[in-house]
Amino acid sequence: MPITVHFATNRVVTGAAEDWRSYGNGMGGPGPADIVYATAFVNETSLTADTQGAITRIQDVSRGGFSDQAIGDLQDGGRNVLVFIHGFDNSFEAAITRAAFNRDWFAASRLEEADTSVVAFCWPSLGKLLTLPVLWGPYKSDQVMAGRSALHLMSFLANLQPIIEAARAEGRRVFLVAHSMGHWALQAALDAWFHAGNGDAVLFDEAFLAAADEVYDSFDYPLLGRLSGLGRLAAHISILFSNADLILSVSAALNGVRRLGQEGPHARFDTGRFPKAKFSMVDCGGFRDYTFDPASSHQYYRRSLAVRALITGTMARSRIA
């Protein structure tokens, strides 16, 4: 059976929106009505690798909001909901298939709570890895695009809010998984959310921040800046980090500041600032139950069976009181 991935994207669409090859690396129009919402189907036989052509079809395309079919599946589909924000070096096809991989890998735990309907936000990454001799170009382009996606991602979250509330009224849970540079987009969207006058709204039972390519003191910012306001949208936050993450070591050198996903947040041991009832600090640096190399060291949240078990176990326990 194909894997269903509902998605929204602010990528420019150069052809028919039903053709996955139409989704380019540039950014579409600036308004909420310019965001494309649709449903993709991913061939499950391709789940061992990010192979081109894994998306078999796209349907239920609309602009500015989810289709009735997608809304029904997310709020009435009988499953918990997984919201995924991808990171650096993800083409459109890679971002959508990665969302499908995560859904199936978490479901493989056989925990009912980890068998989810997935919805992804796809921002316009170039899909180019850091390569010598030019390191800064593709990375900086992605960082700029992630930051410029603030209003689009905020609009996506606003459109999700009534769907989430309806799903939760049916006893469902909602999880956020952000990876890598997806946190750069997330912090910008949170800043936009609160500056637009939006208030507290518990969108997520649990927010998993995995290998965050974001400044290490992101939770220190005043007036709900950067990630400091996430606790007002998430009942609980799990921060996954690894000092063995070789990609983030490069990112720290390029940016001149430590990343949140390397050793966790500033003052992470201060339970006054990070109460255990609200935050979990998950050090993943010691896990080696997967083929370890520079690329996989940044993908431990899905490559390591042990880390996946930690995530799915938390999914099973997380419930808003």
Explain what you see:
The structure is a single chain. Strands 5-4-1-7-6-8-9-10-11 form a nine-stranded mixed sheet, sandwiched between helices. It contains nine helices and eleven strands. The chain starts with a strand and ends with a helix. The protein has 321 residues and is α/β, with parallel strands linked by helices. Strand 6, helix 2 and strand 7 (116-122) form a beta-alpha-beta unit.
Give a quick summary of the entry.
With 321 residues, the chain is α/β, with parallel strands linked by helices.
Question: What proportion of the residues form beta strands (DSSP E)?
Answer: 15-25%
* Total individual domains: 1
What global shape is seen? Answer: globular
The gyration radius over C-alpha positions equals 18 Å
What are the SSEs and their pairings?
Blueprint: E1 3-9, E2 11-13, E3 23-27, E4 36-42, E5 55-63, H1 68-76, E6 80-85, H2 92-107, E7 116-122, H3 136-148, H4 150-169, E8 174-179, H5 182-195, E9 206-210, E10 237-241, H6 246-255, H7 260-263, E11 279-283, H8 300-303, H9 305-317
Parallel strand pairs: 1-7, 6-7, 6-8, 8-9, 9-10, 10-11
Antiparallel strand pairs: 1-4, 2-3, 4-5
Helix pairs in contact: 1-4, 3-5, 4-5
Core attributes:
two-stranded antiparallel ribbon, nine-stranded mixed beta sheet, globular, 321 residues
